[in-house]
Design brief:
The protein is α/β, with parallel strands linked by helices and 175 residues long. It has a single domain, classed as 3-Layer(aba) Sandwich (Rossmann fold). It has a 7-stranded mixed β-sheet with strand order 3-2-1-4-5-6-7, sandwiched between helices. Strand 1, helix 1 and strand 2 form a beta-alpha-beta unit. Helix 1 packs parallel to helix 2. The longest helix has 22 residues. The protein is globular. It starts with a strand and ends with a helix.
Length: 175
């Protein structure tokens, strides 16, 4: 599979995909925050990358078409994608979300879990649909929340599971 990745942040899931999906090729990374870690990781890994504003989805579509991507992975893309992108790549866009969906959709999911005194949280890989964080769940992984956890410690524990399950899903997908 030819994979296109969309990032807004540090890019650890992006790098993890490159390193742990050897039968697939990451052909391009699109990012929407200048100077983000994903841009630096792309340079280091020798993966083509391009900055495109989130609202410029026509340009995003053109880039993915130019690179002939089979799968798009939202790996820390902190914007909702439009129906236009979803319709152009139906059942070919996946996302990793830091909660056990359908619980805590959208932003600040881990803080919501902490504020709710939950004893478990986790992460979910799912297909992207027009309704935010509501597509078919492909895989979930639970992470226990202890009384000592802070947002920082919980984030690290959940990211560790994200790094484990996202490549598992990609490696099993047949598109």
């Amino acid at each position: 599979m030819r994979i296109g990745i969309m990032c807004s942040g540090n890019g650890s899931n992006f790098e993890n995909i490159v390193k742990n999906c050897p039968d697939h090729k990451v052909v391009v990374m699109i990012y929407n925050k200048m100077g983000c870690g994903a841009e630096k990781r792309s340079q280091k890994l020798g993966i083509p990358y391009v900055y495109i504003k989130s609202k410029d989805e026509d340009d995003i579509i053109k880039m993915f078409e130019a690179f002939r991507v089979d799968l798009i992975v939202l790996a820390g893309w902190m914007r909702i994608v439009s129906p236009k992108l979803i319709d152009k790549f139906p059942n070919r866009i996946i996302n990793i979300h830091p909660s056990l969906l359908p619980k805590y959709k959208g932003l600040n999911a881990l803080q919501q879990a902490l504020d709710s005194d939950d004893i478990v949280t986790g992460c979910t890989v799912h297909f992207v649909t027009e309704e935010m964080d509501s597509g078919v769940v492909l895989l979930q992984s639970e992470v226990p929340i202890t009384h000592k956890d802070t947002l920082k410690t919980l984030t690290k524990k959940v990211q560790k599971e994200e790094h484990r399950i996202l490549p598992m899903v990609i490696n099993k997908l047949k598109l």
